[in-house]
Amino acid sequence: MMRKDIRAILFDKDGTLFDFEATWNVWAKAFLMRMAKDDEKRASDLGHLIGFDVATGVFHRNSFVIAGTPDDLVAVLHPEFPELSKHALADLINEEAAAAPMVETTPLRPLLERFSAAGLQLGVATNDAKAPALAHLDAAGIRSSFDFICGSDSGFGAKPEPGPLLAFCKAVNVAPNAAVMVGDSTHDLVAGRAAGMITVAVLTGLAAAADLEPFADVVLPDIGHLPAWLGLGRS
């Protein structure tokens, strides 16, 4: 029997719906090489600034990019590209991000359909910009599954502030204590706690369980384990 205290689920995008390493490691290398005009030494130096190892193609676990916003990335990289306005650099970042090869953490369409069939309201709150977020959801064929989608530029603020989460609850007319925030970073979970939501951590980002446990009501391997936790039974 489904948990009757839960009426809505809000998902983070990167590291939650989509595998972080499989997606954003590829994006980062392509973006940095583009910005460096294929100069590997220049790309490596830029990677150092954002916590990304170009040689191995891997983000450092403490990179601010993992849970940050495009504005955070612009702030760090803009001094390296004085010929570009901050707006132009943000456009380049979002353009490259929209083309990132998104890898689902679990087959998403059937999973989301199960949640919708159970009467749950669904949303996405990402610290990515909204335009690339919509492109990613469209590419996976799941945009229509969500009742609410917002990015860090949607006017509600960015995680770990609770603004996007409270906007979701308001949009779907569900009290925060009847909604779940599902994410792979402490930003997601701190925002969930601040909003008064139930918090579920997943291990498909770069954070370890020990990092997430202090802020989570439960830690799951991935979102494919949510139906059992919710009491929806076997698929």
Notes on the structure:
The protein has 235 residues and is an alpha/beta fold. The protein has two domains: 8-18 and 103-230, HAD superfamily/HAD-like (Rossmann fold, 3-Layer(aba) Sandwich); 21-98, no CATH class. The protein is 41% helix and 12% strand. It is built from ten helices and eight strands. It has a six-stranded parallel sheet, sandwiched between helices. It is elongated.
Number of DSSP helical runs: 10
Averaged pLDDT? 94
Strand content: 5-15%
What is the CA-atom radius of gyration, in angstroms?
18 Å
The assigned CATH architecture of the largest domain is: 3-Layer(aba) Sandwich
Q: Helix coverage percent of residues?
A: 40-55%
Q: How do the strands and helices of this protein lay out in sequence?
A:
Layout: E1 8-11, H1 20-35, H2 40-50, E2 52-53, E3 58-59, H3 70-77, H4 86-98, H5 108-117, E4 121-125, H6 130-139, E5 148-150, H7 163-172, E6 179-183, H8 186-195, E7 198-202, H9 209-212, E8 218-220, H10 226-230
Parallel strand pairs: 1-4, 1-6, 4-5, 6-7, 7-8
Antiparallel strand pairs: 2-3
Helix pairs in contact: 1-2, 3-4, 4-6
